[in-house]
Write a structure and sequence with these properties.
InterPro entries: Class_I_gatase-like (IPR029062), GATASE (IPR017926), GMP_synth_C (IPR001674), GMP_synth_GATase (IPR004739), GMP_synthase (IPR022955), GMPS_ATP_PPase_dom (IPR025777), NAD/GMP_synthase (IPR022310), Rossmann-like_a/b/a_fold (IPR014729). The protein is an alpha/beta fold and 530 residues long. The chain has helices spanning 27-37, 51-56, 95-103, 191-202, 211-226, 239-252, 270-282, 292-299, 305-331, 344-349, 385-394, 399-402, 422-441, 495-508; strands at 3-5, 18-22, 42-46, 61-64, 90-93, 107-109, 115-123, 137-144, 147-150, 156-160, 168-171, 176-179, 230-235, 256-262, 285-290, 335-339, 373-377, 416-417, 453-456, 461-465, 468-477, 480-481, 489-490, 512-517. It is globular. Bound molecules: xanthosine-5'-monophosphate.
């Protein structure tokens, strides 16, 4: 029935945008985040974007990211010299630095002299725009094959390494700067300071960007987009949808209806958090659909992980669309907008640094005219996850929602190895609640990325409790540390905390007589068991 078309969301024009030109690999996102940590608004653009288009965005500065290529490789990305002649301050890093050097007439040698990892940097001009106030010897993160041996004319060489004669150059007159290394990674001990020096001293930008401004700008933008029409927002219990809904609620109040599908696979107290705390904090109108039975019926007899995922996804869309339909029937064609918690990394990763997300929901429920299309409202599309949390905090959302660790959409359904039943879910909910409580008490929430608690429902082992022999299920603890869930390592939790969790779970959760710790990194293991 309903489909959602990419919205003509009014992009908030920020007067102080810094463009990060993406030359590949994963550096651009990190640089963009670091620029925002310096309280300057940044956006990522592809290196294929014509320079005229970049300049049309009226950037206050441009940063050229690193990338996997050698400037000598065939087909390696190039840059139009015009970029350096427009009077816009430019900072090149790694590949961006070498590109700057070759484009402006410096020398980059394909010497095979490689540097990789932590490298000592010797600063030769201590009071320079980039290096002022930082030590003459500092550790930086290198990752390159080619090396710059002569800076372009008009540039001062301000740092070197044992291998690279020109590891940094600066031209204050033209406001062009570059470093061979990666200031954006934490291993470069003064990297953030050097980036800030470029932004504040080199480019003369004031650090004024805050998430507070984002709220004001987005509220205005949402009002302009939605007008006097109505919007629907699906809440998942996660941070993104909650913050998106709270922002839209702030902008258009009761013109927004939130829908929460309770699939019965949530953790203990999480549905209540949405039903009570979210509503109390935002005053949002909320429709809760109790679909537990429907989901459990659909999952009956199913053990295969992928089949479970498919069933949960399918049922979710059906229930959500049914709710949409009812709201539409009640409120009429005024309902024209669908709120989504799309984040900036989603936009960048889907290839559209400046484009719109392309989301279409399936056509499953009959009864709604086919030509009804919801326009998307995506108030978080410029934000990174940590910024979303800050916005949520400023909007007064409960800490439990704002600081919530990642939790999979299919919920506990994929943390029961075996068939999903109500009894097993209740049992897992108890064990999970104990683990979460103890980790929070021990102050470990920020240290771990997430800690799936898994019930091996198809496994039994012998135990002894009181005077009797037991034959119960094991619970697996899977605490992991990670930056982005793509790779992860198992968290080295203190033994006392593990002991406490284990004792409590085996004492307090019936039918569980063993607690085991998953000590597998990702790869080869995934974070979830299913
Ligand atoms: P894996 O298990 O692949 O998980 O290492 C990586 C991250 O993704 C989460 N995850 C999911 N999230 N729907 C979601 O919304 C899913 O089906 C799903 N599967 C895994 C997982 O919790 C981890 O953060």
């Amino acid at each position: 029935m309903s489909s959602a078309s990419p919205a003509a969301a009014p992009d908030v024009t920020n007067p102080d945008v810094v463009l990060v030109v993406d030359f590949g690999a994963q550096y651009a996102q990190l640089i963009a985040r670091r620029v925002r940590e310096a309280r300057v608004y940044s956006e990522i653009v592809p290196s294929t974007m014509p320079v005229a288009e970049m300049l049309a965005k009226n950037p206050k500065a441009i940063i050229l990211s690193g990338g996997p290529s050698s400037v000598y490789a065939e087909g390696a990305p190039r840059l139009d010299r015009a970029l350096f002649e427009a009077g816009v301050p430019v900072f090149g890093m790694c590949y961006g630095f070498q590109l700057m050097a070759t484009t402006l007439g410096g020398t980059v040698d394909n010497t095979g002299a490689r540097e990789y990892g932590r490298t000592p940097l010797h600063v030769s001009k201590a009071g320079s725009t980039l290096f002022e106030g930082t030590p003459v010897e500092q550790s930086v993160w290198m990752s390159h094959g080619d090396a710059c041996s002569a800076a372009p004319e008009g540039f001062a060489v301000t740092a070197s390494t044992d291998v690279v004669p020109v590891a940094a150059f600066e031209n204050d007159e033209k406001k062009l700067y570059g470093v061979q290394y990666h200031p954006e990674v934490l291993h470069s001990t003064h990297g953030q300071q050097i980036l800030e020096h470029f932004l504040y001293r080199g480019a003369g930008i004031q650090p004024t960007w805050t998430t507070g401004n984002v709220i004001e700008e987005q509220v205005a933008a949402i009002r302009a987009q939605v007008g006097d029409k109505r919007a629907i927002c699906g809440l998942s219990g996660g941070v993104d949808s909650a913050v998106a809904a709270a922002l839209v609620q702030k902008a258009i109040g009761d013109q927004l209806t939130c829908v929460y599908v309770d699939h019965g696979l949530m953790r203990k107290d999480e549905t209540e958090q949405v039903e009570k705390d979210f509503v109390a904090a935002t005053g949002a109108r909320l429709v809760v659909v109790d679909a537990e039975k429907r989901f459990l019926d659909a999952l009956a007899g199913v053990s295969d992980p992928e089949t479970k995922r498919k069933i949960i996804g399918r049922e979710f869309i059906r229930v959500f669309e049914q709710a949409q339909l009812e709201i539409l029937q009640e409120e009429g064609p005024e309902v024209a907008f669908l709120v989504q918690g799309t984040l900036y990394p989603d936009i960048v990763e889907s290839g559209g640094g400046t484009g719109t997300a392309n989301i279409k929901s399936h056509h499953n429920v009959g009864g709604l005219p086919d030509d009804i299309e919801f326009e998307l409202v995506e108030p978080l599309r410029q934000l990174f996850k940590d910024e979303v949390r800050m916005v949520g905090q400023e909007l007064g959302l409960p800490e439990e929602i704002v600081q919530r660790q990642p939790f999979p959409g299919p919920g506990l359904g994929i943390r029961i190895v075996g068939e999903v039943t109500k009894e097993r879910l209740d049992l897992l909910r108890e064990a999970d609640a104990i683990a979460r409580e103890e980790l929070t008490k021990a102050g470990l929430d920020r240290e771990i990325w997430q800690c799936p608690v898994v019930l091996l429902a198809d496994v039994r082992s012998v135990g002894v409790q009181g005077d009797g022999r037991t034959y119960g299920h094991p619970i697996v603890l899977r605490p992991v540390s990670s930056e982005d869930a793509m790779t992860a390592d198992w968290s080295r939790l203190p033994y006392e905390v593990l002991a406490k969790i284990s004792t409590r779970i085996t004492n307090e959760v019936a039918d569980v007589n063993r607690v085991v710790l998953d000590v597998t990194s990702k790869p080869p293991g995934t974070i979830e068991w299913e």
